[in-house]
Amino acid sequence: xxxxLPEQLTxxxxxxxxxxxxxxxxxxxxxMHHANRQEVNNSEMVTIDAQFNRIASMVATLVIMILVLxxxxxxxxxxxxxxxxxxxxxxxxxxxxxxxxxxSASRESEDIPIEQLASVxxxxxxxxxxxxxxxxxxxxxxxxxxxxxxLSYDAPGRGLIITQQPLxxxxxxxxxxxxxGIGVDAPITPVMxxxxxxxxxxxxxxxxxQQINEDGTVTTQVIWNETVSMRTLRWIEGDVIFxxxxxxxxxxxxxxxxxxxxxxxxxxx
Length: 269
Hints:
alpha+beta
């Protein structure tokens, strides 16, 4: 992962600070040259002093600009403000949703071999290097309608899904959300994924009832349950939003929790 903007600016500031010695030496040489001149009128003195003042002003302005830029939030924080958070909240913890039967199918991904994903997606993809050995890649897919790539892994009684999407495409649907987001009372934990800000949520929507209507639509009643074994980590890196979702398992039994998810996230390249 690349350095954040403040870190890059700090490095730049440290690089240019050495020029102050050169500026002092140049000023001393100019003054010595001026002192050696036998004749100089007052207008020349005023011109030279003005030049020294302009140089000092330029140096001071440059230092101020660097300090101000170093205090700006990283790019991914600005993107988070645009999204109003990495998780969209519903207005309630219980919902009744009616959709056409074809609606869920329209959100299905096209199965594409992992080695071909880069040629299909129109953004730079990252792949994990620290998936636990008990997990095997089940499939990789591409959601064309929202320009989203998913990698799905399986283990006995467990699942792991990694998703990535350009920020420019979130208007077509955020990651693989079906538009429901998370429950209104779902706790959101701010976290850091290396240098990048992220958010962590435990819970999922549970189907309470579902029926097919006479007009062919499907009505589903769901409730948000934060005790379900579903953990979701999201973060923004550059102009891409990432998600790792772990399902199943229990602590102490090869459980993928927040710490393990961050390790996977940091291994992506």
